[in-house]
Structures are given as structure tokens and as C-alpha cells.
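Long-time lurker. I teach an intro course on protein structure, and each term I like to show students one example going from raw sequence to a predicted 3D structure in C-alpha cell notation. This year I'd like something fresh instead of my usual example. Would anyone be willing to generate the C-alpha cells for the chain below so I can use it in lecture? Attribution to the forum is fine with me.
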Amino acid sequence: MTCEGCANAARKVLSKLGADVSDIRIDVDAQRVTVETTLPADSILATLEKTGKKCKRIS
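-- Reply from a regular --
Happy to contribute to a lecture. Here you go:
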């Protein structure tokens, strides 16, 4: 993630998950997306990969 456009794309796909996502925090400089959710991590990663960016789970 290198720009606000990338961050907006991530927000857009994650927001489509609805009430299962309670918080989305994006730090473009650190290239990090933090998501509070009841969904499994694999589901979040698959959703983020729809933006065309590579993703990995940190914790």
C-alpha cells in the first residue's frame, strides 16, 4: 500500500463485509491495515487481496 488510493480501495472492500467489521485502521506509511472483526483472518486476507495487493497476517 503506497497511497491513499490504495487505502481507499482497502476501506471499500472491507466495508462491504458490514457489521462483521467493527473497526478499520489504515497506516499508509507503515503499509498496515488493522481490522477488528468477528470474521476469520483468512476471510479478511481474501477480501483485501481483491484490491490487487499482496497481503499477509501479522498477528
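Some talking points for your students: Helices lie at 4-15, 41-49. Strands lie at 21-27, 32-37.
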